[in-house]
Amino acid sequence: MAMKLLVTDIDETLSRGESVSPEVERACARLRENGWSLMVATGRILATAISHIRGIGSSLPAIVYDGGRVMDPSSGKSLCETPMDPSLALEIVGAGWHHPVELQIIGDEKAYCRYSDVMTRDFFSASGVPVDDSMESPSSPATVYRVIFHGVPGCIRTLQHELKSRFSGRAEVVQAGEGFLDILPPGVSKGAALAAWIDTLPERPELVVAAGDHHNDLELLAAAHIAAAPEDAAGDVLKIARVIMPSADRHGFAALADWLLEWEGSRYEIASPVVLL
C-alpha cells in the first residue's frame, strides 16, 4: 500500500513550546492507526526536536536544520546533509555582527554564540545542547550548517534586506519565525530535503500533506498535494494553504488530523480553502 505522508513543522504549527499537547498526541495516534506516516520538518536541531518527534510517534527520518540535514531520530545519524562553507559563514557572521540582534551558529548538534547572546545560551543549555559562548569577534567553526539571527522583528527585517542584497545567489536568507532569520547554504530548504528523501523511497507516497506557518515552510508546502497552515501563519503562507486550522495554542493540529481522516473517506476536490476554525 502506498504511503500517506503528513509532514509538519514544529513551532507554532504542531505545538507551542517544548512538548506536544495530549490532544495532538491522541490525534496523531488516530492518524497512525489509519495508515498515515508522520514526519517532522523543522528549523530545530535534532536534540531540541526529539521530544516532538516522539510525541507524534514518528519513526521516519526527521528534516532538521531547516532542511540542512535529514537525520535518523533513533540513532542520531545524519542520512544526508548540506553543510555551509565556513568562509561563507564567517562573512555572514561579520555582516550581522554589529546589528542589535542575537547570533547563533549551528554546528553538529552544537551552538556557538557570544556571551551576550543570553537567550541563545539559555535555550540550548536548558535542552542539554553544548554551547560555546566564547566568540569575541566574527568567526566560524569548521563544521557549520547555518547562521541564525534573532531579535526585534523590525531589526530582523532590516538585516534580512541587507543580507539578501549582499549574499544573493550565495546563500538562502529566510525568516523562520517571528524575529528569526535563517541563513542557509544555497538551495537548502525543507521542501528540497523532502524531495531528496522521497527520491530514495522504492515507491513515491500516494498523498503528501504538509503543514507549516512561516516563510521557511513555503517550499515544503508547495511540494505537497495539500498545504495546511494555522490561522495565525504568515500572510504568504496563508495565501497558498488549502486547509486553515486553529492556532497551535488551540491544538489546531488535532483539528487537521481529524479533518484528514474524514476527508480521505471521500477525497472530494478542495476547490477553495477549507477553514477548520
Question: Care to describe what's here?
Answer:
GO terms for molecular function: magnesium ion binding; phosphatase activity. InterPro entries: HAD-like_sf, HAD_sf. This is Cof subfamily protein (Haloacid dehalogenase superfamily)/HAD superfamily hydrolase (TIGR01484 family). With 277 residues, the protein is α/β, with parallel strands linked by helices. It folds into two domains: 165 residues, Rossmann fold, CATH 3.40.50.1000; 99 residues, Hypothetical Protein, Haloacid Dehalogenase-like Hydrolase, Chain: A, domain 2 (2-Layer Sandwich). 32% of the residues lie in helices and 22% in strands. The protein has nine helices and 15 strands. Strands 2-1-12-13-14-15 form a six-stranded parallel beta sheet. A six-stranded mixed beta sheet has the order 8-7-6-9-11-10, sandwiched between helices. The chain has a three-stranded antiparallel beta sheet with strand order 3-4-5, with helices on both faces. A hairpin with a 2-residue loop joins strand 10 and strand 11. Helix 1 runs parallel beside helix 9. The protein is globular. The two termini are 32 Å apart. The mean pLDDT is 96.
